[in-house]
Amino acid sequence: LTETSPSTSATRRKVLIVDDQSTNIQVLHAALRGGAYLIQFATSGQQGLDLARRSLPDVVLLDVHLPDLDGIEVCRRLHDDPATAASLVALISGSGEDDDVARGMKAGAVDFLIKPIAPELLRRRVELLVELKGLRELTGQAPAAPDALSAAPSA
Amino acid sequence: MDEGMAEGKSAPLVDVSDLLRRMGGRQDQAVTLLHEFCEAQTLAPARLADALAVGDWPRARQVAHRLGGSAANLGLRALATEALRIEALLHSGNPPPDGLDVTLLTTLFTETAAAVERDWPLPASAAMADIDVAATLRLVDRQLATQDCEVLETLPTLLPHLPENGRDAFAKAVQSLNSARARVILRELAAGMEITLD
User: How high is the ipTM of this complex?
Assistant: First the structure.
């Protein structure tokens, strides 16, 4: 066991998981762990918003059905806040209802995943979102993350 | 496939292969999650029945959704299928069709919980590894402060070194990802061990 230095954490791409069910967070974390990302968690919509403003994640995996703020409302607030607008949101739901998908995309989400998500698929989708975030940074569409190029995981 | 989780045990209720694939082959964590799910959702069938009885369709739908989504993530397919079937019937927010009840769901939950208890008991406590306890306490405190999921990896190495009084509450707070409560307990434990975190 070694301590992770703050500088190491700062250079890793960040993925924020927002879900009120800890088992769901742990399953997503199990699929993504391995060192490429700093994976953070929030167990409510408001907690997710607060942490996103502090941490500025590259990717947010956001459950649609949260007990306090609806996940789609959280997505809208992230998208509308200049501080967090660059974060790419993938909504997650137990069902792919057309209405949820449409409202999510309108709120600024860039992806929609249905539970249960195959771990290989989740890893690839997150990789692609991180690559998209990197491209947006390169083209000036998003503020550059610290040491973003060297921190990007290889696909 | 992990050797310890035999294929076939409770196969209709728990898809072990699927769960282990999701957990990267980590059996201890998979078993812990199954128990955590059963404990966290133990009242879900009754809550669903209550919501249906009073005609609170949105609440009934939410309970079914949460139960079904988590069950699906853990490979509890029969339970997930029934919960999501009920959720779908409640989708419109209107009264569900006659005959919607939770008998099958309740039975599936009870049988699933019994199978988990019988076939996959919680693993024994981790052996006490040789670690720098003060440094590990500080690491866990930082991980909780930043809500870093890695705290779940650090937790098993730290737990055996903590005083018994408060250890279980701390582990439960971390595993439920209640970082604020976990930090409060951690600071109390550290103070008792005369270790300063800040």
Answer: 0.84
